[in-house]
Design a protein that fits this description.
Layout lengths: L1 E2 L8 H19 L19 H17 L2 E8 L7 E7 L14 H14 L5 E7 L3 E8 L2 H8 L13 H12 L7 E7 L10 H11 L1 E8 L4 E8 L5 E7 L4 H11 L3 E4 L2 H14 L9 E6 L1 H21 L9
Parallel strand pairs: 3-4, 3-6, 6-7, 7-10
Antiparallel strand pairs: 1-2, 2-11, 4-5, 8-9
């Protein structure tokens, strides 16, 4: 047990001083010699001062109650409102290009996304992947372990090849449409130009702007020649060929500009990590409020005890009168 307002105990000083003065005053009066009184009841007998003693203790207890005696029950951190973030990942065949470490573009993107997810505290995250079509892999959730588990299953070659950027954005926007979060974000990762789908990226950008959703676009790679898997040779070894892939950084830049986001181009894993770090800084989650301590309060117990002392003092004052009758 400890006190939240211990300064109130300073009130004990005048109470103790007053008690000392009263005791000295009565001791002085009791020092007068009385004679010729038989059967004189001794006024200095302790029982005649019991009412005053219990009154004094009651006041001490009331002051102690003012000091707020407590014990710590638990410490809690209030929840904070996070952001809703939809990650929209290109899984077209071109994401297998081997210009990123440790393996290819899709692996590098998944590794960086996983690290980004591990840094979340209160944000809800969702994942859409797209190629010629788009699919929802993970609805908005705060279960980051499940998110990374399902993210690991995403790969290329599971849907027809193509790059439907508009459809990927449209599906992500549909998942954010009913969101009540103050901050709504889409992180779009792609390495190509829009060549499929029935929703144009520009239309999706306009919808994002109307919904108040920021789109951060990340172009993975360049349109320069890059090594690309070409199969295996007679000995079962992987073979590669140089391939040039079309990109459209201007399209991604316009999408982000319309929605209030930013555009990034990453040609290495390090630059991809830097892009996510910058997005994390720009969309910093609210700092949790300071931890709240929940106490068990005992002031009321001491107040009740003090009142009981006062009542007991009144009873004693009727039993042991302060000025008892003198028997002659």
């Amino acid at each position: 047990m400890f006190l939240l307002d211990p300064l109130f105990l300073l009130l004990w000083i005048p109470l103790v001083l007053l008690a000392v003065l009263v005791i000295k005053s009565r001791t002085k009066r009791n020092s007068v010699a009385f004679t010729n009184f038989r059967f004189l009841r001794n006024k200095a007998d302790a029982k005649y001062y019991l009412p005053q003693l219990f009154d004094f203790l009651a006041f001490l207890l009331l002051v102690f109650a003012l000091a707020r005696p407590v014990t710590l029950e638990k410490t809690v951190t209030p929840p904070v409102e996070g952001k809703d973030i939809m990650i929209t990942l290109d899984v077209s065949g071109s994401m297998e290009a081997l210009d990123f470490q440790p393996k290819n573009r899709i692996t590098a993107a998944k590794n960086v996304i996983e690290a980004f997810v591990k840094g979340r505290k209160s944000d809800r995250l969702g994942l859409v992947f797209f190629a010629k079509e788009s699919f929802l892999q993970i609805p908005l959730t705060t279960d980051y372990d499940i998110f990374n588990e399902l993210l690991a299953r995403v790969t290329t070659g599971v849907i027809d090849d193509g790059t439907a950027i508009g459809n990927g954005l449209g599906l992500a926007l549909s998942r954010l449409e009913s969101s009540k979060a103050k901050s709504k974000v889409i992180i779009l990762l792609t390495d190509g130009d829009n060549n499929s789908g029935n929703i144009s990226p520009e239309t999706a950008a306009d919808i994002a702007a109307k919904q108040g959703v920021k789109v951060y676009s990340i172009l993975i790679g360049t349109d320069a020649e890059v090594p690309f898997p070409a199969g295996k040779d007679l000995f079962g070894r992987d073979t590669f060929q140089k391939v040039r892939m079309k990109t459209n950084p201007e399209l991604l830049r316009n999408i982000s500009a319309k929605s209030g986001g930013r555009f990034y181009q990453s040609i290495s894993t390090e630059e991809l990590e830097k892009a996510f770090k910058d997005i994390d800084e720009l969309e910093k989650s609210p700092i949790p409020a300071r931890k709240l301590k929940i106490y068990n309060e005992y002031a009321s117990d001491f107040i009740v005890l003090a009142l009981a002392f006062i009542v007991f003092a009144r009873i004693l004052s009727m039993i042991f009168k302060v000025y008892p009758e003198v028997e002659r």
